[in-house]
Write a structure and sequence with these properties.
The chain has 691 residues and is an alpha+beta fold. The chain contains 18 helices and 24 strands. The strands form five sheets. The protein has a seven-stranded antiparallel beta sheet. The chain has a six-stranded antiparallel barrel with strand order 8-9-10-13-12-11. A five-stranded mixed beta sheet has the order 16-15-14-17-18. Helix 2 (210-227) packs across helix 4, helix 6 packs antiparallel against helix 7 and helix 7 (314-325) packs antiparallel against helix 8. The two termini are 53 Å apart.
Length: 691
């Protein structure tokens, strides 16, 4: 991919504004040279990339958030080593990531490397790649080692591109400079990113440390890409399995990404010193510690490769992993205990290849050091009473693409009253038609520091169709979801409970016609396709009991439609009713363009007595991996002490998404059903005419 000046107004394949090359090192993170990135103005650049071969190029804005060395660009001459920059994309996009080696580039011996980048040729920007020879190093082992590269030309523009180990298919460095009077140039090892500033305060979350945030996201990405069964593109593991190359022959490519992904599910080391203590405690660890010192779990694993270069290193790797499980944590999340168990499961399975004595030692150490499950940290969210603005929508049965609407205000300390309403509005024009009434409603309801919550009550068939949080109340206004809490409610829950229009025994809702027939008593013969008989009063009592439990205890997230990326049916009604009262249902695969049953799945959840549920829209990105979404919902939704905080948590995520904080990009397209059974919707009646 390429780095351009921001907002230059040039065609994507023309040289105007072109600064240099770069590559995606983690989801929504770009690595390039500092002298390339800092040619942009105000730290703003444009990143031009191709999501996948043949899909065409796109441009997305980016912000330079770190340079090495830190500080202003030099007045003249070359930018000093290590000359690295991290660019954070300002919005989430679908893209591939390179695989970055865990091993320092200095461990790479003499031989050939590959490089790639962009340059101007014949008045157009062209991709360039080739081989270079490693001809030695510049500098000392203790500071800013650069590899000298030769035997090929490095034209203008390729700076910032990746340098790749052709045997292992790993990025080991970045093209820094080209030689002025000879062929070739220099590259910097990516381990120099370990010198990014360490936060002065103890970590409270992964994103508090930029280095950990980028590389843990990198390792989870490659693990999750390998798990994604619907992806058609080859993964790094697929290619490496064909090459047959393994570092030290200890781990297969798949074992390697699975181990790194599990390590990245854990909070990072409490400090570099604590990581070094783990390495030095390994009885068979003999290699000199690399510089810069290991900083993340992946760095420690990379250091082990040089201690034993044959299959005998497996006990070393597994001993390291077990010590990581029992390590001191700078913080914990609700997922930490499960991540520890998952890593131990991997160790136990891999340990079956060890001898009896080694297995015994491993299990004895695990029994001694096994961590106790510690509670996750809880972010305090105030939950004062909030004013409410309610939008109610009613579809027209004879024209479901049009609706009637009304706006009701419920200020604090005053009775709710309907402000205005209208009919015959196409769904596509709804946001525009609601702009003036909502602006007035918010003006009447907002208080200093307490903006009104926007509740949108819709028929169950519209629950997932309207991106309400993206509504803009004016041409230059921010999305309403970034400005205030926005939640959805189900307007026709009673009809849904009584009628079961989809036929609940059809797991994907594909028997919608049978379900409609079932309303008239004509369910399927012998196949259970007709509606399930339920007592509406019993379901309503279950709904109230679930609501009370969720607002007095911690939630338990349950992803209902996804198993490591593979879509599955939402459980049938009786299975849903059997879930614990602490359950918050989550849909991961909603709107992935492969199925047309989203309304049925949401309807089944509502019918099952759930008033709180979460989903994300995947429309337009069917190959997006879902590991970060699972992880994010578990940590954010199961973290607070009760569901009172969920509307504010979702609002906080949307606000951070809007300002481009990448640790929240997993939440793009998120929607929240939050339908308080103790706040019934106003009774049906004639809508008021709009003024």
């Amino acid at each position: 991919m390429r780095i351009h000046r921001a907002g230059a107004g040039y065609a994507l394949d023309e040289p105007g504004g072109f600064l240099g090359s770069g590559f995606f090192v983690a989801p929504n993170w770009v690595l390039t040279c500092a002298h390339v990135a800092c040619e942009g103005e105000g730290g703003e650049v444009a990143v031009v990339y191709e999501p996948a071969p043949g899909r065409g190029r796109s441009a997305v804005p980016g912000q330079v958030v770190a340079t090495l060395p830190d500080g202003a660009a030099p007045a003249a001459g070359n930018w000093p080593a290590p000359d690295l920059a991290l660019i954070r994309l300002s919005e989430p996009v679908d893209h591939e990531c390179v695989y970055v080696s865990e091993r320092p580039a200095a461990y790479y011996g003499d031989g050939k490397v590959l490089y790639a980048g962009w340059t101007e040729y014949g008045g157009q920007l062209q991709m360039l790649y080739g081989t270079l020879s490693v001809e030695g190093t510049i500098g000392s082992w203790s500071a800013d080692v650069q590899m000298r590269l030769g035997e090929n030309d490095l034209p203008y523009g390729v700076s910032g591109g990746p340098v790749i180990d052709p045997v292992r298919g790993e990025v080991i460095g970045i093209v820094k400079s080209r030689a002025h009077h000879a062929r070739g140039g220099t590259s910097i090892g990516l381990e120099q990113l370990r010198t990014l500033p360490v936060p002065a305060e103890p970590l409270a979350a992964e994103h508090d440390d930029l280095y950990q945030a980028v590389f843990q996201a990198h390792d989870r990405y490659h693990r999750d890409r390998q798990r994604h069964p619907a992806a058609r593109r080859h993964t790094w593991v697929d290619v490496q399995s064909q090459l047959g190359a393994r570092p030290g022959r200890t781990l297969s490519p798949d074992e390697r990404v699975q181990l790194l992904g599990r390590l990245a599910d854990l909070p990072p080391p409490a400090s570099t010193r604590s990581l070094l203590d783990i390495l030095e405690s390994l009885p068979d660890f003999e290699a000199p510690l690399p510089l810069p010192a290991p900083r993340g779990w992946r760095d420690g694993l990379g250091a082990l490769y040089e201690s034993a270069r044959d299959d005998g290193a497996l006990d070393l790797v597994l001993g390291y992993a077990v010590r990581v499980i029992g390590a001191e944590r700078p913080y914990v999340t609700p997922r930490t205990p499960a991540a520890e168990e998952a890593l131990w499961d991997w160790v136990r399975r891999a340990g079956e290849r060890l001898g009896a004595r080694q297995r015994h030692v491993l299990n004895r150490y695990w029994s001694k050091e096994r961590p106790t499950h510690r509670p996750g940290t809880v972010r305090p969210y105030p939950s004062p009473a909030q004013p409410v603005v309610l939008v109610e929508l009613e579809q027209r049965h004879w024209d479901p693409e049009r609706c009637d609407w009304s706006v009701t205000v419920a200020p604090l300390g005053a009775e709710a009253r309907r402000l205005t309403g209208a009919d015959e509005v196409p769904l596509t024009e709804l946001a525009e038609r609601l702009t003036a009434p909502l602006v007035e409603a918010f003006r009447q309801s907002d208080r200093p520091g307490r903006p009104a919550v926007l509740q949108v009550a819709v028929p169950y068939r519209l629950l997932g169709r309207l991106a309400v949080d993206d509504w803009r109340l004016g041409p230059d206004a921010e999305p309403v979801g970034a400005l205030r809490q926005v939640v959805l409610r189900c307007k026709d829950r009673d009809r849904l409970v009584e009628d079961d229009p989809f036929g609940d025994d059809d797991p994907f809702g594909e028997a919608g016609e049978a379900g409609e027939a079932g309303e008239a008593g004509e369910g399927g013969e012998g196949d259970g396709a007709g509606p399930v008989a339920v007592d509406p009063f019993e379901l309503e009592e279950e709904r109230r009991a679930r609501w009370r439990w969720l607002h007095r205890h911690r939630a338990a997230v349950e992803v209902l439609d996804c198993d490591d990326g593979l879509r599955g049916p939402v459980p049938r009604l009786e299975e849903l009713r059997g879930l614990s009262h602490a359950t918050v249902p989550v849909l991961c695969q909603f709107g992935d363009d492969r199925y047309e049953d989203d309304a049925a799945e949401l309807a089944r959840i509502v019918r099952g007595g759930f008033s709180v549920a979460l989903w994300r829209s995947r429309r337009g990105s069917p190959e997006a991996v879902c590991g970060e979404f699972h992880r994010g919902t578990f940590d954010e939704i199961a973290g607070p002490p009760s569901a009172h905080q969920l509307p504010e948590i979702v609002h906080d995520l949307r606000r951070k998404l809007r300002v481009g904080q990448p640790e929240t990009f997993w939440a793009a397209g998120i929607a929240l059903l939050y339908d308080d059974p103790h706040q019934p919707l106003p009774g049906a009646g004639d809508l008021l005419e709009a003024p």
